[in-house]
Amino acid sequence: MIKKLKNPYYHIAYWIFVIIILTTTFGSSWKNTSVAFFFVCMLLPIVLGTSYFFNYVLVPKFYLTKRYLRFAFYSFCTAIVSVYLEMLVLLFSFVYLENLNFSNLSPNSTKIIILAIVLYLLVFIGSFLLMMHQITENRQIIQQLIEEKEKSKKSFLEIMSNRKLAKIAYEDIVYIESLSDYIKVVTTKNEVTSKERISKLVTRLPDTFLRIHRSFIINKDKISSISSDQVTVNETQLNIGRSYRKIVKESLNSKL
Hints:
CATH 2.40.50.1020; five-stranded antiparallel β-sheet; three-stranded antiparallel β-sheet; 20% strand; elongated
């Protein structure tokens, strides 16, 4: 399903770019950039409405669900309505901007077919950019799933401890603590220390582990209780860092 870009500045930048291009195009033909700018600004709500309705309603609701006949029908209706609204803008331009002097209007602006082509060209360009953004996001999600799958293939954590490779079963780990220049892996059987950084270690762990503090990573399967600022794992109480509380709440919502 097509989603909106999380950052609204992409949308704003795109439509500012559209205004500049259309103003330049009509302005050069009209020989009056300021009037062309007002004309483009009057067209812009129609272009915006058509673009967002097509990309965020018709495409996800009908095209992506394979209801092609409805998609074609509603797209046709949208085209008719948008062209009709363009004609109203053209009429208003004729009355207000050029004082009923039709000959003063830009040759391009008086041809409704050209205006319709410009409108839907912008709609499809926006749809293409949105699709490319969605493809990039999907690739990132796929890559994360692949990495998570690779982590899950191993049932144990490998770290260097006392110059030897230690293999610790994930299911035995209770929590991991960062202490100055080394980490301590607390298991149900013993404790293992290593010179590894906790920030690098967390990227190697499967999603059954959660960082709750700059100094703590816990095994979610070992949680016995949780409050707003503490987590208890195997009778050991660990503080939740302020900057991690939102992430912990979202991850452990079912346990709250």
